[in-house]
Amino acid sequence: MIKIYSTILLLSFATIFVYGRHNFTLNDPTGEISPRDTSIVISGNEHLQLDLSLPDGGLAPAPGVLNIELLRTTRDAPEIADADGWTYAHHMDLAEWRGRLYAAWNMTPKDEDVPPAKVVYSSSNDGIEWRKPADLFPRNLAWATRFYFYHTQNDKMLAFCAAKLSDGIVTENLKSVLLVREILPDHSLGPIFTLIHPTEKMPPFYESSHDSAFRRACFEALNNKMLLEQQDYGVFLGDRKMSWHSKTPKYKGFYPFGKAFSFFQRKDLKWVGISKMGFVTTSADGGENWSEPEIPSTLIAGAAKVWGQKNYNNSYLLAYNPDPKRGKRFPLVMVHGQDGIHYNDMQVIHGEYPPLRYPGKYKDFGYQYVRGVAPWSTDHSFSDSTATWLIYSVHKEDIWLSRIPLNSKTLTYPNETFEKITLGAIVPQWNIYSPKWAPIKVVLEPGKNSNHCLELKDGDPTDYARALRMFPGSKGIHAKFRVKPMQINALFNFEIQDNKGQKSLTIQLTKEGTITFTDSQSVSILKNYLAGKWLKVEIKSEQEKGHATISINGKKVKEINSKNQKENSLERLIFRTGESRKLGDTDQLLNGADKPVLQPAIFLLDDVIVTNLN
After folding, report:
1. Please, what is the Cα angle at 561 between 558 and 563, to 5 degrees?
2. Fold of the CATH domain 2-405
3. Handedness of CA 234, 238, 243, 247 (dihedral sign)
4. pLDDT of residue 261
5. Cis peptide leading into residue 55 (ω within 30°)
6. What is the DSSP letter of 218?
7. Between the CA atoms of 460, 68, 426 and 464, what dihedral angle is there, to the nearest 10 degrees?
8. Residue 264 pairs with which residues in a beta bridge?
9. Distance, CA of 609 to CA of 596 (rounded, Å)
10. Neighbours of 140 (CB within 10 A)
11. Exposed site from 65, 123, 468, 511, fewest CB < 10 Å?
12. What secondary structure letter does DSSP report for 3?
């Protein structure tokens, strides 16, 4: 078997690289485009407006994005999480197979790459409801990789993990053994084999399988250089890896080329590879030879991963953390383009910032190591082809997904009754932040047979549900909505925000059963509210005049005449089951209370209408 494996490793084409000067430049915070920047060009000045004192960086959200939590770790209720109470979750991947979206990730009890460890997976028919995580490989064998899935030309879905070679830590550059098994058409798991570097202590070499179709699939994976190059430094490729790993200077003497690659094929059919720190290289021959790496001056990427992909509608997307100082992993943003080279319109994918509950080794704050569905990880059977799905960790603690609509329509003023929206969590044109224990979805009003409304439920002691609706910017709006609190001991916030995300005014249903109004000048109690009763709220707000009126159930309860007129236009409604939070790297240990509250708060939202007063 070893002899067969050695023969396979020699099945690579001759690779020619040119030793030239290393033409990457440090990212220029001014965004000036260098004449040498030909691989990635990002237009716009959003990164110059970035405010890292805010969770979303002060940037505009991408309209219609759904943020949904797949896994919320907890030590106090492990039976509803990963079953073990482990709190480090990271190294994710996505795939599409036989009508399902698949996710896989690595977990440890507390710290990054400190055993024991497990590689787990889950699947979903709609991206919303996910099956309970299960081990993808046995724990005595499994260790984390940068990728877990590969769909072959003979319609096999392979799953991978690195092999656990000892009881100690296995660093990226020491990983050498890659295990493989098949995810069968009925979604069960096949027997385990070794794909790369078979040893006596590992499962048998894949060539020993009696399934010839499986052997062909493994041979194909073994010879897909871009698949294996995704592992840091091309370690699974041996001598077949990009030669630039040894030729490219480290960024600032520390960060090396070739960590956490993503690959996509752009419009001119060249392949693009992007690794950590924004190193970019291209191939015109299907991944055999690669250009000298550069760091485009307009790709202001952090020390986490940059994900690039071609979407179903033939557009292109880059997702990353736009931190010029390379120490922050928030916000998670995207830029998009039409040719795989030129990108613009930086927008936020994920800009909420819950506290880190369980500190641990290398548990960086933020939304990080984002991945989508790689071009070789799909059979194109997942039904939601009108959106792009991304997966990432938050604080290396919880696993989240984002659904990004591909054909975002021009922003409109909402006239939303929710009647035409299918029951569930995907709400067109709304930005939904839906934690595992604080979900948002369209439901039937209890006791009614026909009235659809948006339900914000909150049973999370550290997070909240949030629904955001963007609309065309205006200096004056007339906003109306109905809200039905199902209790009087929970918090509900409504905000009108300007185009910078700054609050124009806030209306709050308090835990004391009162409705309060807050602006930049004062807080005042408007009236009391009752559980189970609809409140009809109406606001007229005119920024330039500094004038606003608030009516509840048809009665004017507040009139504001401010001398502090604002020039920014209004463009967002926010509905949230908690106070707005400021950025703070504060840990929050709950000492036995990190579990869903017994009686989650529920608020129903309906008939959201905004008209332009200008």
Report:
1. 150
2. Neuraminidase (2.120.10)
3. positive
4. 96
5. no
6. H
7. 30
8. 272
9. 33
10. 8
11. 511
12. H
Buried b (16+ CB within 10 A) or exposed e, 410-426: eeebbebebeebeeebb
* % of the chain surpassing 70 pLDDT: 91
For the chain, give every domain's residue range: 2-405, 415-612
Phi, psi of 471 (to 5 degrees): -150, 165
The residue among 377, 390, 382, 383 whose CA lies nearest residue 158 is 377
**One-letter identity of residue 11:** L
Report the run of H or E that residue 549 belongs to, with start and end: strand 547-552
456 vs 602: CA distance, rounded Å: 6
Distance of CA 598 to the CA centre of its chain: 29
What's the first-to-final CA gap in the chain, in angstroms?
76
Q: What are the tokens at 210?
A: 């009696």
CB atoms within 10 A of CB 200: 4
Of residues 461, 404, 416, 453, the one with CA closest to residue 435: 461
Q: Which of 436, 504, 505, 501 is nearest to 464 (CA)?
A: 436
Residue 166 pLDDT greater than 60, yes or no: yes
Residues 6+ apart with CB under 8 A from 308: 262, 263, 264, 272, 274, 316, 317, 318, 319, 340
**40 neighbors 299 (Cβ within 8 angstroms):** yes
Is residue 68 exposed (0-12), middle (13-18) or buried (19+ Cβ within 10 Å)?
A: buried
d(CA 418, CA 467): 13
Cβ pair 367, 329 in contact under 8 A: yes
Torsional class of 233: left (φ above 0), alpha (ψ -120 to 50), beta (otherwise): left
On the question of pLDDT at 25 being above 70, the answer is no
- The first and second tokens of residue 583, run together, are 């950025």
pLDDT of residue 285: 95
Helices marked H in 90-230 — which ranges? 212-222, 225-229
70: which 2 tokens? 């797949």
Tokens standing for residue 281: 């290289």
Residue 584 pLDDT: 64
Q: At which residue do the structure tokens 């009696």 appear?
A: 210
Task: State the DSSP code for 356.
Answer: B
Place of tokens 């959201």: 608
Q: If one looks up domain 415-612 in CATH, what number appears? A: 2.60.120.560
pLDDT at residue 23 is higher than 50: no
pLDDT in tens, 28-65: 444 444 445 479 999 999 988 888 888 899 999 999 99
How far apart are the C-alpha atoms of 441 and 427, rounded to whole Å? Answer: 8
